[in-house]
Amino acid sequence: MRAVSIFAPAKLNLFLAITGRREDGFHDLVSVVARLTFGDTLRIEEGEPGRFGMTCDDPTVPCDESNLVLKAANAFAAAADWRGGATFVLEKKIPMGAGLGGGSSDAVAVLRALNEGVGAGQALAPATLTGVAASLGSDCPLFLHEGPVVMRGRGERVSALPAGAASRLTGRRVLVFKPAFGIATPWAYAQLAAGAPRSYLPAVKAEARLAAWMENPDAPAEELLFNNMEPPAFAKFVALPVLLEQLGREFGLAPRMSGSGSACFALLPEGLPAAPIITLIQGAWGKSAFVTEARLT
Ligand code: C5P
């Protein structure tokens, strides 16, 4: 296998409706997800047969078997009956506990690279690869796709957003920002379950809302934005709604939280300088707040 470097993009949930709890303990959702021009880089080098190892430039990232990168490599080897080995060198840019899909994207970068690297004879069929991705995490399958997608089920049913709707998202300028603290996804889902049934948006309503946006060619990306994981997160982490409201008042933005948080984002009009917005964010959340400008892909 040749050494390769692969880009592992972050994602944003532009529309996220958690519709209810399933028998298996997971939640059903309807979500529109776009990937970003911002993300991690993963270099994959050939390793000793049957052995996987990883290093990361961020010392806070665990490089043991708990990392999804190594879980993905092991899951791929088992599914493809592949006996090779690899070393993964992760350049980490996407913050953790952010709802930006960093770990999931890294894992899928591994799956994509190995699936190409093993050659046609041993490569997994797309449906099998999707199954392996889904077994690693609910947010993994979406990263096997290009362009904005609609995600359903617990995240394993992914389809491309129709071209007309996708064109209203792709290329949009976005500011992504996260406070120093993260939010654990299981905690966020548990809060929704505790507030059931009020906390869920019934699937019929979620689909109707999404269809109305998709079918109206004049509806801008701003009208799609929705996330019913916000109320419990905002109730506990008041710094989030306080800043989002301020950004609305001072810059006319309509910022939202991504996924289960704690990262938030705002679509930026072209030509609006980002510097004063970043100054406001860092004034409110401190210099340790993460801020980056990117575009939807
Ligand atoms: O699939 P993933 O490992 O990302 O899920 C982490 C946790 O988030 C799950 O254990 C579950 O508590 C919750 N979750 C959920 N429904 C989803 C995705 C995640 O309840 N669709």
Structure in words:
The chain is α+β, with helices and mostly antiparallel strands and 297 residues long. The chain has 2 domains: 157 residues, Ribosomal Protein S5, domain 2 (2-Layer Sandwich), CATH 3.30.230; 115 residues, 2-Layer Sandwich (Alpha-Beta Plaits). It contains 9 helices and 11 strands. The strands form 2 sheets. Strands 1, 2, 3, 4, 5, 6 and 8 form a 7-stranded mixed β-sheet that branches. A 4-stranded antiparallel β-sheet has the order 9-10-7-11, covered by helices on one side. Helix 1 runs antiparallel to helix 3. The protein is globular and about 55 Å long. The mean pLDDT is 97. It binds cytidine-5'-monophosphate. The site of cytidine-5'-monophosphate has 11 residues, from strand 2 and helix 5.
Ligand roster: cytidine-5'-monophosphate
Structural class label? alpha+beta
Domains (count): 2
- Distinct helical segment count: 9
Overall geometric form: globular
Q: Averaged pLDDT, please? A: 97
Describe the sheet with the most strands: 7 strands, mixed
At a glance:
The protein has 297 residues and is an alpha+beta fold. The protein has helices spanning 68-80, 102-117, 126-136, 163-167, 185-194, 203-215, 230-236, 239-251, 275-285; strands at residues 4-21, 27-47, 52-56, 85-91, 149-152, 157-160, 173-178, 226-227, 256-257, 264-267, 290-295.
